[in-house]
Amino acid sequence: MSIHIQLLTKDVVNQKLLNEILELWNENAIETADCELGESERKAIQEQLEQYIESKYGAIYIATNENNEMIGFGLASIKKDFIYDMNYGQIDEVYVVPVYRRQKIAKRLVDDLVNWFNDEHDTTVVNVYVDLENDLALNFWEGIGLEKEFFMLSNN
């Protein structure tokens, strides 16, 4: 099995690729939140994807199989910490279709995102937000070396 990881850039991205990411994002929403994306959510995600491709502060990597079918993606962005006056990397989303899990594809996506942080933006700190009830995700992130730093509280 041959898996290819690719950074999406302005010269390679097209609407078909963006639609494929949206479909995988919808699968993720169904799997983790038991709901499908609505039309307004799809539009907002599409806009976010387009902004990441246009900006030097956002990155989208996709994973494809030997048949050139998209089987996963990862999104990341550079954020500014004004307290410490430093930039840090934030991994915003990583998803691999279930049949391709446990084959180190998500790890490869994350490695490429972290390399993008380091190479393009000289960042050493990487953050990711994970739902405390998502044991699969928590185990993945801790398994690749990230540690719980603090809990974020919200009113929803």
From TrEMBL:
A Gene Ontology molecular function term for this protein is:
acyltransferase activity
Which InterPro entries does the record cross-reference, listed alphabetically? Acyl_CoA_acyltransferase, GNAT_dom
Q: Where is the N-acetyltransferase domain?
A: 3-156
Q: Which UniProt keywords apply?
A: Acyltransferase, Transferase
EC number(s) per entry: 2.3.1.-
Q: Which PROSITE patterns match?
A: GNAT
Q: What class of enzyme is it?
A: transferase
- What name does the UniProt record give this protein? GNAT family N-acetyltransferase
